[in-house]
Amino acid sequence: MALPPQPWPTGDVEQLEPLVARVLAPNASPFTYTGTQTYLVGTTDLAVIDAGPADDRHLAALIRAIAGREVTAIMCTHTHRDHSPAAAPLAEATGAPVVGCAPLVIETDQPRLDAAFDRSYAPDRVLEDGEAMAGRGWTLRAVHTPGHTSNHLCFALEESGALFTGDHVMGWSTSVVVPPDGDMGDYLSSLSALQERQDRVYYPAHGGPVEKPRQLVRGMIGHRRARERQIEKLLREEARAIEALVPVMYKGVDERLWPAASMSVYAHLLDMERRGTVARLGDVWTTS
To answer: pLDDT per residue over 238-259, tens digit each?
Structure first.
């Protein structure tokens, strides 16, 4: 998807609702859209969600946005390098603890479709599913949403019905699911769990607010299931390698995006293999 026209509000404080403000990092790319969005929750004391990349300009923008207020917690949804590296210097500047997802570093020789993992991430506290952090007038509860990464958390703001979705649900694109850590089965299960919730709005790390969250999630699940049916149909016709599936499935899509498509197809195949729908013989896949 093409980036929107500039100027973007990079470094500015945007007040989205009484308890929620947003600061956009200067790291726009084909995988981060206009950049990673850091959220400030609270009024007199704050939680900072996804402090963002290791960028001095973004750190300075966050310090300006905090404006001398107490920071109760710096909270991380997951440990890709566009999300968590600024947590440590922000903690040093504010004295706040780093809490949220568990540390995770996965190395792979496959083409990367997202940011690499942050090796420096060292939380003071890991939140389990359902655990909460609270300040004056706000409560953020962890919602475990594995799939994009196995350690991914969303954070539910109980006072307003908002859900901070990190990269699990984004406001501009579907989430990337890249094996070995990304897991399509977990991703779909997490989407189904979100669809059962009654959140009013999603605030993703990339892209605009999602005002009809359950409708979007339903569409995302439908899109993934349609891709799965497409794979199964093609493999019923003949056994194929991933390299033979992608040109058929993504006909008309810019070939520069085919490596990303290959990883998505691979994630689907691994999930289907686990459920006994497909099998592989070397590099070739077939229906079971």
So the answer is: 999 999 999 999 998 888 778 8
